[in-house]
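[recover] target loaded
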C-alpha cells in the first residue's frame, strides 16, 4: 500500500515538472498524475504533442539538431 502512494507521488512530480517545462497546466497534470500514475503517460505525450503543434503551427518545418 505504501509503495502505491510513493509511486503516485513520484508520477505526480514527474507530470508537474514536464507540464511546467512545456507550458501546460502543471497543477492539473500533477493531480491527474497522482490519481492515475503511469497510466496517464500516453495521454500526456499526446497532449504535449498537440500543445506543441498549436504553438508551432501545422505547416511549419521544425528540425531538431
Amino acid at each position: 500500500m505504501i509503495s502505491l502512494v510513493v509511486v503516485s507521488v513520484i508520477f505526480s512530480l514527474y507530470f508537474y515538472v514536464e507540464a511546467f517545462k512545456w507550458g501546460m497546466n502543471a497543477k492539473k497534470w500533477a493531480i491527474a498524475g497522482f490519481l492515475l500514475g503511469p497510466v496517464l503517460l500516453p495521454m500526456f505525450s499526446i497532449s504535449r504533442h498537440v500543445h506543441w503543434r498549436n504553438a508551432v503551427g501545422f505547416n511549419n518545418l521544425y528540425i531538431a539538431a
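[recover] notes: Residues 2-22 form the longest helix (21 residues).
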